[in-house]
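Re: the request from the purification team.
They wanted to know what the chain is likely to look like in 3D before they choose a buffer screen. I agreed to run a prediction and write the result into the notebook, where they can find it.
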Amino acid sequence: MVSFIPVQPQQHRRRHRTSCQLTPVRVARPSLLALPHELILKVAQHIVAAPGILPGTSFISAKQSWFGTIAGLANASRDTRDASLRAWFRVFIVREEGDWHTAIALSAVRFSVREIYVCSQAVSPATCPDALLSFPALRSAHINAHNDVSFDPRHGYTYYTLLPIVPRSLKRLAIAHAHAPDAERLQALVNRDGLRLEELRLGRCTLFDCANEGCSYWPAFPHDHDAYFSDDGSVEYAMSIAQDLMPLRSLRTLHLGVYLTPHIALATHQRDHAPFS
């Protein structure tokens, strides 16, 4: 007898399909440059800095002459490039007249310059007297004023005060190889409202500068050089300078290019270095 066992039908479970929409979540990545801007600027200044001072100056910091030393940092990001350019142009050397126009046209240069060195070939009586005002953050300026005198056969020698107008931010000023009297420059400094100058150096062109600067003034007036070596009237001169500088209340350091040496020293030098006849 064959019996059939009924087979229970399998119960099929319904599978509920659950659909969900995935929303992309943006995870903020940490910046590749997480350093403060002030620290980046310090790094850039360390890269371009060189020990000592700029040759021929008394306080202008030296800097590297090759931009390749800072090119890697400058190309890292926009922030590092800004910091690198600010550090690089912190010391600016004006070598020729055209450098003034280049610096004024570039805001990265104008607002970054803290110390400026003006070569003798870059400044003349035709230079704008307030050219230094183009650098509002300027702290130190060294001006080679050797071209402050011109000669005309009819009128003789004419003296000029080069770059007499300085920005209010200036703390240190040095004038080198000058021929013009100091009175006009001192008056311009005193009349500058808000100026807090702390250091002033007034260097004169001397007979010994002929070899370096090619000066034609002293061969024309060899005996006038005695005024820089004589101590005659030195007390009156010092009192006059002190009176002129009295309004500069912040002044701490003063250097005057006057040599209190007997005339015989100059005569001995001229005799020892005279060409053989």
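For the purification team: The chain has two domains: 34-88, 90-272.
Please add any questions underneath this entry.
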